[in-house]
Specification:
single chain, mainly alpha
C-alpha cells in the first residue's frame, strides 16, 4: 500500500485495507501523481501533460523522465561523436573537430532539447507541488550553479499529502487543503 492508498500488484494486502476509489468525478487522472510509475508510463505522462503546470507529479514520474533524457543524450551524442570522429578534420591550431557525420546528431539533440524545455519545466513545477512547495521555486535556477543544485535537492523530497492543495480540482471546488481520512471499522465477519 502506498501513501496514496493505491494497492500495489503482487504485494500482500492486510486483511482490511482501504480501497482506492480513484479520482473524484470529473477529475483528470493525469492531474494526480502516479507513485511507482515505470519508465514507459512516466514518459507517456510527461508528454500527455506537456504544458500542465497545475497538479502534481510523483518522484518516480520525475526521475524516470530525467533518466530517459540522460540516456537519450548520451547515446545520441556518443554515437554522433563516434561517427563524427571517423571523419574529423584537423584545424590549423592542431585540435580536431567532428566531421560532417556529427551534424545530423547535433541537430537532433538540439531539437530534442528545445522540444523538452516547456514539459521539463512543467514536470519540475508539478514535482515541487507534490512535495508541498510552490512551483515558483523553479525560479531559483536563475542563480547560476547554486540554484540548479538547490532545485535538484528539492526534487528529492518525498511526496506529502498536503501537496493536494495544488490539485486543479481542489482549486475549482474550494475543498479543504488536507483532512485526514476518517477511521473506518473493519467489515464484520460473515455469518454462517
Amino acid at each position: 500500500m502506498t501513501e496514496y492508498g493505491v494497492p500495489q500488484p503482487n504485494v500482500p494486502q492486510p486483511a482490511y485495507a482501504p480501497q482506492f476509489a480513484g479520482p473524484p468525478a470529473g477529475v483528470d487522472p493525469l492531474d494526480l501523481p502516479y507513485p511507482g510509475a515505470g519508465p514507459v508510463l512516466a514518459v507517456k505522462r510527461f508528454f500527455q501533460n506537456y504544458a500542465k503546470f497545475s497538479g502534481r507529479a510523483s518522484r518516480s514520474e520525475f526521475w524516470w523522465v530525467q533518466l530517459v533524457f540522460i540516456v537519450v543524450y548520451v547515446v545520441l551524442g556518443g554515437f554522433g561523436l563516434a561517427l563524427g570522429s571517423a571523419s574529423s578534420v584537423q584545424r590549423p591550431d592542431g585540435n580536431y573537430e567532428p566531421g560532417p557525420a556529427f551534424i545530423p546528431f547535433a541537430v537532433l539533440l538540439v531539437i530534442i532539447s528545445l522540444a523538452s524545455i516547456v514539459p521539463n519545466i512543467a514536470l519540475t513545477v508539478r514535482r515541487l507541488h507534490d512535495a508541498n512547495m510552490p512551483g515558483l521555486l523553479y525560479l531559483i535556477t536563475f542563480f547560476p550553479y547554486l540554484g540548479s543544485f538547490v532545485l535538484l535537492i528539492l526534487n528529492i523530497f518525498p511526496s506529502k499529502p498536503e501537496g493536494a492543495v495544488y490539485d486543479r480540482y481542489r482549486a475549482t471546488q474550494q475543498v479543504a487543503p488536507y483532512a485526514p481520512a476518517e477511521p473506518q471499522s473493519p467489515p464484520a465477519p460473515p455469518v454462517v
